[in-house]
Design brief:
- It is a single chain.
- By secondary structure, the chain is of the alpha+beta class.
- Among the domains are: about 10-75, no CATH class; about 180-195 and about 410-485, conserved putative lor/sdh protein from methanococcus maripaludis s2 fold, CATH 2.40.420; about 200-210 and about 325-405, Efflux pump adaptor protein, beta barrel domain (Elongation Factor Tu (Ef-tu), domain 3, Beta Barrel); about 220-320, OB fold (Dihydrolipoamide Acetyltransferase, E2P) (Beta Barrel).
- It contains 8 helices and 31 strands.
- Helix 5 (about 250-260) runs antiparallel to helix 6 (about 265-275).
- The longest helix has 18 residues, at about 470-485.
- The radius of gyration is 46 Å and the shape is rod-shaped.
- The model is unreliable at about 1-55, about 60-70, about 110-130 and about 485-490 (pLDDT under 50).
- Keywords: Transport.
- Belongs to the membrane fusion protein (MFP) (TC 8.A.1) family.
């Protein structure tokens, strides 16, 4: 038959247990015998169906078909050559292994697969020693069911049981997966590295004044406001800048005693108790005169937060005339949820973003964690101190607070996806290369920015699986179960004279 003879293939499978009928007729296109056989065998595994070959089928084509699992026809076309030991090495042309053995030809109608298969020894233990093949332990169910067999067999769906070799059980904790399956399931690995684990706590906050930088200007005796300087709420003032002149009969009486009795220390002490400024007392002693009104000055640099002094008013003792605040340093009070409170520490860096100043970040530190939890909001107030040299931070501004919690030094860390958390324990899969994976229990620490601290179990430089690790973990659990069933536990020795159970 000319291998260029044009054919068109159509096939009809009989109902029930009937044979598969194949018909062909000449059409206007060319089909090589290999393509003809491939079209006839689509979806069918050679050797599993009785094929009553039609009489019209040419002998060269019929010789390519396999009958009743008789094996590949010796004259079937060679598709490729594979490693004699079953490794994942393939060539299109004849080749030799490093030890000089020829690659094995894989013919057209053989079961084509790209999973590495162990080499079949030439015979007995000697052949096994020559080829380096591994000892077959048992066969396991292809669907993962807890069923093993000492001999080859098929399951209820006709699928072959999977052989398990001694090399695969060399380590009870190691799982071996073929490179083909590793690629198909999308297994990915990443190296374990040392990195800083940071998990920012983001909470809202409010800008407030530093309570330690607020001062009240008031008299300690009844007085009358004689004159107020041209300053008002919001004005910046400097330390020592005059604010108000007040007349106090009690202050004038004490000043008169000081001038009349210059050596009498009690008069000077009385003026100090009435909060008369030291420079005013010195001026009285120098001029030997009692001023009609006493000038009160600003006790610090800052902003006038409140002015209540009005010319001509009577101010009772202790009444506030001015309230002055230093805004060079501001507080931000943030409410941290109770479940995040354990990771917040005094001294941690804080980034503050004020909503009225977009694009600008203020850096500070946690200064204090208040010792109380709000019973309604279940939050705890945290105080952050921020420098405010240009005065743009104002009291009662809203702010977004980001507290940098976590370790400040690099620690061993793995991606979050690498950890399999069962609730009772945490496991990672170590990629040992060549399709070998080891499940390993670990102790985890802080989490942040997609990584988890590993306090025990792995070390920097090892490879951990970050994708498809649940599939490998299932394979590991299945292997452990199968090994326990494949190795029966010997019965306990029976005591002498003990009666056997019926």
């Amino acid at each position: 038959m000319d291998q260029r003879t044009p054919f068109q293939i159509s096939e009809t499978q009989g109902r029930g247990d009937g044979p598969v009928r194949v018909a062909a007729r000449v059409t206007g296109f060319t089909l090589a015998p290999a393509a003809l056989v491939g079209a006839m065998l689509v979806g069918l595994k050679a050797g599993e169906v009785n094929w009553p070959l039609p009489a019209w089928l040419p002998a060269p084509v019929a010789g390519l078909l396999v009958r009743d699992g008789a094996g590949p026809a010796p004259d079937a076309p060679i598709l490729y050559y594979r490693d004699p030991d079953g490794k994942a090495a393939y060539t299109l042309a004849p080749a030799k292994a490093p030890d000089g053995r020829d690659y094995r030809p894989v013919r057209f109608n053989e079961d084509v697969g790209f999973e590495p298969k162990p080499a079949e020894p030439a015979g007995g233990d000697a052949g096994m020693a020559q080829t380096g093949a591994k000892k077959l332990l048992y066969y396991r169910n292809p669907m993962g069911l807890p069923d093993t067999s000492a001999t080859p067999k098929k399951d209820s769906m006709g699928m072959d049981y999977i052989p398990v070799y001694a090399g695969e059980a060399e380590d009870g904790n190691t799982v071996r997966i073929s490179p083909g399956k590793v690629q198909r399931t999308g297994v990915r690995s990443e190296p374990v590295e040392r990195r800083v684990i940071s998990r920012p706590v983001r909470v809202p906050g409010t800008v407030t004044l530093d309570e330690r930088r607020v001062t009240i200007v008031a008299t300690r005796s009844d007085a009358y406001v004689d004159h107020v300087e041209n300053v008002t709420t919001g004005d910046q003032v400097r330390k020592g800048q005059p604010l108000v002149d007040v007349y106090s009969p009690e202050i004038n009486a004490a000043a008169a005693q000081l001038i009349a009795n210059p050596g009498f220390d009690g008069s000077r002490r009385r003026l100090q108790n009435l909060n008369v400024p030291a420079e005013v007392i010195a001026e009285m002693e120098r001029t030997r005169k009692v001023p009609m009104a006493i000038t009160w000055s600003s006790p610090r640099d800052g902003v006038i937060l409140q002015r209540t002094a009005i010319e001509g008013m009577k101010a009772a003792a202790g009444e506030t005339l001015f309230r002055i605040g230093d805004i060079s340093v501001m507080w931000v009070l943030a409410d941290v949820p109770e479940y995040d409170l354990g990771s917040v520490k005094v001294g941690q860096p804080v980034a503050v973003h004020v909503r009225s100043l977009p694009g600008r970040t203020f850096a500070g530190k946690v200064a204090l964690i208040y010792p109380q939890v709000n019973t309604q909001t279940r939050t705890t107030r945290v105080r952050i101190e921020l420098p405010n040299p240009d005065g743009v931070l104002l009291a009662d501004m809203y702010a977004d607070v980001e507290i940098g919690t976590g370790a400040t030094k690099p620690v061993v860390a793995v991606p979050n996806d690498a950890i399999i958390d069962t609730g009772a324990r945490q496991v990672v899969l170590i990629d040992k290369g060549e399709g070998r994976f080891e499940p390993r229990e670990v102790k985890v620490g802080a989490r942040g920015e997609g990584y988890t601290e590993i306090r025990d179990g792995v070390k920097a430089g090892e490879q951990v699986v970050t994708a498809a690790n649940f599939l490998i973990d299932a394979e590991s659990n299945l292997k452990a179960a199968l090994q326990s069933m494949a190795t029966p536990t010997p019965p306990a020795p029976q005591a002498q004279g003990e009666e056997k159970p019926r």
